[in-house]
């Protein structure tokens, strides 16, 4: 059924990866003259004159403990967007292969496909943003190389049903990429706990949301050591900077702050989810397992969007997304920001 060697592009299977100086020699020597670095030091306030560890061993050791996986099951990317791009490039020959997406969903899957000249097959989520039996059948029957399942889904906020994802994992011949960018906010176990059962499973997570490190650009992919090995083979050699690796290590030592912020954001989400339906202009607030809420506005969501903009409040207009007519996506902010949003909406409503 699933055969990784068969799924990987033939040119990638055959190619020899770039071997960097830091691949060939690891560790500290007295005299490091192998990488054309500047031994004198760095301009600016901090030292970054040495190339970083291409495989980010220290960060992965800490992450492995936190996530209950082996370091060999972790890939780190310059944002999970890099992992999305590499997964498409790993499996799809340009102009020939295709990937599957389930709209409405995260926009980068489509961009990665377009950039790589890879065709898109779209199977729509149901009106409550789940997989219908027909769509599951369609995925299983598809010869796409890869399917992206976003759970909790962006922009809708809901988790996909675990039993449906499991059916896809058992039936689909390609890679099943479960994008868990919002997993830290979700009341469900991560699919990283099921990696041993499914050789075709790739789980994406990120430091951009609950960790509060969107500006750092650090994303994670979890999969079998074989899949991770291929991602390492095709990534840019030094894709994670030394500054990012150091900062990630510091963040991982700061778990209490991560927990506290997460709890505060969940409280803010519950408060907004309770308040929004009291407004006449709010038709529906969709259930969310993420740090945002998708809400349907009447009679005109775009007018609400423009009104908020005029008040200096930016939200995401999702009106043109399939199944999302009349909706805005509202990120949960600080308590003050949430109150300002609600006050502006109340003012517009009255
Ligand atoms: C925010 C988000 C990401 C994160 O992307 P990064 O490149 O890690 O910042 C990935 N997937 C989805 C669905 C997202 O909403």
From TrEMBL:
Cofactor (UniProt): pyridoxal 5'-phosphate
InterPro entries: Aminotrans_II_pyridoxalP_BS, Aminotransferase_I/II_large, HisP_aminotrans, PyrdxlP-dep_Trfase, PyrdxlP-dep_Trfase_major, PyrdxlP-dep_Trfase_small
PROSITE patterns linked to this entry: AA_TRANSFER_CLASS_2
Domain Aminotransferase class I/classII large: start-end pairs: 46-345
Record GO biological process: L-histidine biosynthetic process
Group of enzyme by EC: transferase
Keyword Translocase: no
Top-level taxon of the source organism: Bacteria
SUPFAM superfamilies (UniProt xref): PLP-dependent transferases (SSF53383)
Pathway: Lipid metabolism; Amino-acid biosynthesis; L-histidine biosynthesis; L-histidine from 5-phospho-alpha-D-ribose 1-diphosphate: step 7/9
Residues where N6-(pyridoxal phosphate)lysine is found: 209
Pfam families: Aminotran_1_2
Record carries keyword Glycoprotein: no
UniProt entry keywords in alphabetical sequence: Amino-acid biosynthesis, Aminotransferase, Histidine biosynthesis, Pyridoxal phosphate, Transferase
NCBIfam families: hisC
Protein name: Histidinol-phosphate aminotransferase
Organism (species): Hymenobacter aerilatus
